[in-house]
Amino acid sequence: MVTQVIQMFLIPFSAKAFAKGDTAALTTVLEKTICFSAIILLPLFLLFFFLPEQFLHLLYHGKFDAAAPTLRVMAWMSFLVPWASPAASYLLGLGKVRAGFLSSVALMAISLPLYYFLTPILGAQGTALGLIIAFSIVTVGLMLYLHTLVPYRIARIFMRVSDVWVVVRDVAVRIVPDKRAR
Questions:
Q1: pLDDT above 60: residue 99
Q2: Among 69, 70, 89, 177, which residue's beta carbon has the most beta carbons within 10 A?
Q3: How far apart are the two ends of the chain, measured CA to CA in Å?
Q4: What DSSP state is assigned to residue 178?
Q5: Which DSSP letter does residue 21 get?
Q6: How far is residue 179 CA from its own chain's centroid?
Q7: Cβ atoms of 70 and 128 closer than 8 Å
């Protein structure tokens, strides 16, 4: 779901900015999107990694408590989605559809052997681990390729945290009425 929301905004934006040759806007929005997405998904990681048993029990009343170890492994996707989703959206917006297709093929080519070897050894956790490993490799590849088109800097992505507080403040000002204005 996070991926679809990101794509809804980034594909048209990146297409327009690329057509205008506005590399600065492409870079800024990419860095902010990765940073914001990571901050939004951090609580999910914490919940799924540290409290999967409680979460599943609360949600399914004990029916799927055995899935907690798998959910704990899948929690690591919270760190990959903020990088992969904007990268894939940008590549589509920049007209690099073939790269998006090849990344899907690569994900399958990498994950299937990992599933084959890890699932018999680790069960469902092995399958989840195979997906995490394959998705990590593909995400790194997407980000390296995207860097040839949009000159982002990883350090600037982490420095964008202060921008999050500006957005939160601006949203809070709109939601919470100012009592002094009355």
A1: yes
A2: 89
A3: 40
A4: P
A5: T
A6: 38
A7: yes
**How far is Cα 68 from Cα 49, in angstroms, rounded to an integer?**
9
Q: How many CA atoms lie within 13 A of 46 on its CB side?
A: 6
Interatomic CA distance for residues 31 and 162, integer angstroms: 12
Distance CA 63, CA 177 (A): 44
Q: Which amino acid is at 157?
A: I
DSSP state for residue 153 in the 8-state scheme: -
**From CA 136, how far away is CA 65, in angstroms rounded?**
27
Closest to 102 in 3D by CA, of 138, 136, 131: 138
Sign of the dihedral through C-alpha 132, 137, 140, 146: negative
For the segment 111-121, what is each residue's pLDDT rounded down to a tens digit? Answer: 999 999 999 99
pLDDT at site 180? 59
pTM of the prediction? Answer: 0.87
53 near 75, Cβ under 8 Å? no
Residues comprising the chain, all counted:
182
Segments making up each domain of the chain, as ranges: 2-97+138-181
